[in-house]
Amino acid sequence: MPMQAWQESDLVALGLTPDQCREAVQWVEATGQTASGGAAICAALRTGGWHWRTVGVIGNAPGIRVVTESIYRWVARNRHRL
């Protein structure tokens, strides 16, 4: 499934709400499994080339996941400055 803006998606079919999408980036697997925030970024990275897949796997690893979420939240709060 290609990536697309949530405003162009059938959120009901994806099992998401507008509030969830406004709160954080969302990722929906073909199986219907969802991820949000830093986990969604890691899931998207795992679909890229080997180096991005590696970053996605490491970013979602136990112990690292807390750091990934903290970085995601910081970037989300400061994206207008980046």
How would you describe what is shown here?
By secondary structure, this protein is mainly alpha-helical. The protein contains five helices and two strands. Strand 1 and strand 2 form a beta hairpin. It is globular.
What does this entry show, briefly?
This protein has 82 residues and is mainly α.
Q: Please provide the count of β strands.
A: 2
Percent helix among the residues?
40-55%
Alpha carbon gap, first and last residue: 28 Å
Helix/strand-derived category reads: mainly alpha
Rounded to an integer in angstroms, the radius of gyration calculated over CA atoms is 13 Å
Low-pLDDT segments, ≥5 res: none
Q: Label the overall shape.
A: globular
Q: Helical region count?
A: 5
Order of the strands making up the biggest sheet = 1-2
Element order: H for helix, E for strand: HHEEHHH
Strand-helix topology:
Elements: H1 11-14, H2 18-23, E1 26-28, E2 34-36, H3 38-45, H4 50-59, H5 65-78
Helix pairs in contact: 3-4
Considering the chains and any ligands shown, give keywords for the structure:
single chain; 82 residues; mainly alpha; 5 helices; 51% helix
